[in-house]
């Protein structure tokens, strides 16, 4: 193993790095690969899933009742008349099933706490889980949207905003949200080739890569978080956004991979900047916000300037479900930018959307997102599948109905205990930060070297060790996969570990491996130092 040339890996792209690290870690059969490079959680919410499957059984029976005279296996649309009564009987007869009990409480909660029509809600859920109709409306089912609005307002720390002032588009996770938003911004001439956009770094790699594509050819201006400030954006960096040539600011909050939320001070600075630059567009991807304590989204601070992206994937362990939303206020800056386009551009866009309505100019940006997601011509079949929307609603209700927030406390505890196990075995104190979310951790090569063996050793490491090569050596010799922070725009040498997808003892093993490599490097350093004497 010692003869492997790891320098060949240093110039790979982030996704090539990931694939090669995994291949190297899997190259031996006498050990278990520990992939801490991927953010897919190994925990998930079970009760709303139980509810989903039980609702599916009830709904299928309802369908079969509609065509009871037909051959077995053929059903029809569920009947609204008497549906609530039959559902109540279903709940009473299945009090031993956790998912059914939750469903009964959910209908009561929707009625008593959210003030919604329980009959209409139940019918939407039954029809939705059967998937027997196109999504209507195509942007999001009506009652489902109202419930998810309530969830988003609560979880994103948004106070004082009426639900009717908010629009949601249910999408196939945060991934689809990114693709749809970039596309519609370009199609609607809000951004154009050569425009300057600011990106808060470090950040999820696609936010760095998509703007460079031939489709967009955007000039990137980096707003760099400072590790010495707990990965907060210095005011001097945020003030770059006062430059009127910067069209938009894209960020992930809490960040990926530093995994910290923006401080109240940072939020206040951004609010001040928006007052000076009411034309500034902000996109905030808040998928990790649900893991933070007392989280407040930029959407809560600058709602009319901000596109909010939220995904259910990480918090509920639902990456395979592909569930997310895009949120905009009714008074958003995008609709104002559409109204301010030139006559030529307006005419071109009216032609683009003319198949949808006789008044295409009146189509809001969020509805253009829906149309563009299906190349306009297929707008009538747009929208997230209705069973997916039902599962999204059940996830949201599960969280809102949990007055003790037991699930939230549990998942926060899981990732933080794993964080502690890794650093304990590494021999370094766990970074303490009230803004930390701990879904990921960045192991700083320089700081770790300095803490373990002193300043001179750390200086030697920085001059003589390539962190990417080190990660490949770790993968090769131990089977542990960590991703280089550089792939996310991290400027200092570091390794990103997801704290979501392995068990606690495995993170302790990762800490052991890193400590062993640090010790080997220190012995190498001592030999070189002795040789100089």
UniProtKB/TrEMBL annotation:
Which residues are in coiled coils? none
In the record, biological process GO terms are: aspartate metabolic process
Question: Pfam families per the record?
Answer: Aminotran_1_2
| Entry cofactors | pyridoxal 5'-phosphate
Q: Which residues form the Aminotransferase class I/classII large domain?
A: 174-507
**GO: which molecular function terms?**
aspartate 4-decarboxylase activity; pyridoxal phosphate binding; transaminase activity
Please name the InterPro entries in this protein's record: Aminotransferase_I/II_large, Aspartate_4-decarboxylase, AspAT/PAT-like, NHTrfase_class1_PyrdxlP-BS, PyrdxlP-dep_Trfase, PyrdxlP-dep_Trfase_major, PyrdxlP-dep_Trfase_small
| Gene3D superfamilies per the UniProt record, alphabetical | 1.10.20.110, Aspartate Aminotransferase, domain 1, Type I PLP-dependent aspartate aminotransferase-like (Major domain)
Any idea which UniProt keywords this protein has? Aminotransferase, Pyridoxal phosphate, Transferase
EC? 2.6.1.-
Q: Output the CDD domains linked to this UniProt entry.
A: AAT_like
Matching entries from NCBIfam families are given as:
asp_4_decarbox, PRK09275.1
The UniProt family comment states: Belongs to the class-I pyridoxal-phosphate-dependent aminotransferase family.
The protein depicted here goes by the name Aminotransferase
């Amino acid at each position: 193993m010692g003869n492997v040339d790891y320098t060949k890996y240093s110039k790979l792209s982030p996704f090539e790095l990931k694939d090669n690290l995994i291949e190297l870690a899997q190259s031996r059969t006498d050990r278990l690969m520990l992939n801490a490079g991927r953010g897919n959680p190994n925990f998930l919410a079970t009760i709303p899933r139980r509810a989903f499957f039980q609702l599916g059984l009830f709904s299928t029976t309802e369908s079969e009742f509609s065509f009871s005279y037909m051959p077995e296996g053929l059903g029809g649309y569920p009947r609204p008349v008497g549906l609530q009564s039959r559902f109540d009987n279903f709940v009473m007869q299945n009090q031993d099933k956790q998912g059914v009990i939750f469903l009964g409480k959910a209908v009561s909660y929707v009625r008593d706490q959210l003030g919604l029509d329980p009959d209409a809600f139940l019918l939407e859920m039954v029809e939705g889980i059967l998937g027997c109709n196109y999504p209507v409306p195509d942007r999001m089912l009506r009652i489902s949207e109202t419930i998810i609005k309530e969830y988003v307002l609560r979880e994103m720390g948004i106070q004082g905003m009426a639900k009717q002032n908010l629009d949601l588009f249910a999408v196939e996770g945060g991934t689809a949200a990114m693709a749809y938003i970039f596309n519609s911004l370009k199609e609607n001439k809000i951004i154009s080739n050569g425009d300057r956009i600011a990106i808060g770094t470090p950040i999820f790699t696609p936010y760095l890569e998509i703007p460079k594509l031939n489709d967009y050819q955007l000039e990137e201006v980096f707003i760099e978080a400072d590790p010495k400030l707990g990965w907060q954006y210095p005011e001097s960096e945020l003030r770059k956004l006062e430059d009127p040539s910067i069209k938009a600011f894209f960020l992930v909050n809490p960040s990926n991979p530093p995994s910290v939320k923006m401080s109240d001070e940072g939020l206040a600075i951004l609010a001040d900047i928006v007052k000076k630059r009411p034309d500034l567009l902000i996109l905030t991807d808040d998928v990790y916000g649900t893991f933070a304590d007392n989280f407040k989204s930029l959407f809560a601070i600058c709602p009319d300037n901000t596109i909010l992206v939220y995904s259910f994937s990480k918090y509920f362990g639902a990456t395979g479900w592909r569930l997310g939303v895009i949120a905009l206020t009714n008074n958003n800056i995008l609709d104002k930018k559409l109204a301010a386009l030139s006559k030529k551009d307006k005419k071109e866009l009216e032609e683009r959307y003319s198949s949808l309505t006789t008044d295409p100019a009146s189509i809001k940006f969020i509805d253009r997102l829906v149309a563009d997601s299906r190349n306009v011509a297929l707008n009538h079949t747009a929208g997230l599948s209705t069973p997916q929307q039902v599962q999204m609603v059940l996830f949201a209700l599960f969280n809102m109905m949990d007055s003790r927030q037991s699930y939230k406390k549990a998942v926060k505890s899981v990732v933080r205990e794993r964080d502690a196990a890794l650093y304990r075995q590494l021999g370094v104190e766990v970074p303490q930060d009230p803004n930390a979310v701990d879904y990921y951790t960045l192991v700083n090569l320089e700081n770790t070297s300095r803490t373990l063996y002193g300043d001179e050793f750390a200086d030697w490491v920085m001059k003589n060790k390539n962190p990417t090569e080190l990660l490949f050596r770790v993968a090769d010799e131990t089977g542990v996969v960590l991703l280089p922070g550089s792939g996310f725009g991290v400027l200092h040498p570091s390794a990103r570990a997801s704290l979501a997808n392995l068990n606690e003892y495995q993170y302790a093993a990762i800490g052991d491996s890193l400590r062993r490599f640090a010790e080997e490097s220190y012995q190498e350093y001592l030999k070189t130092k002795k040789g100089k004497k």
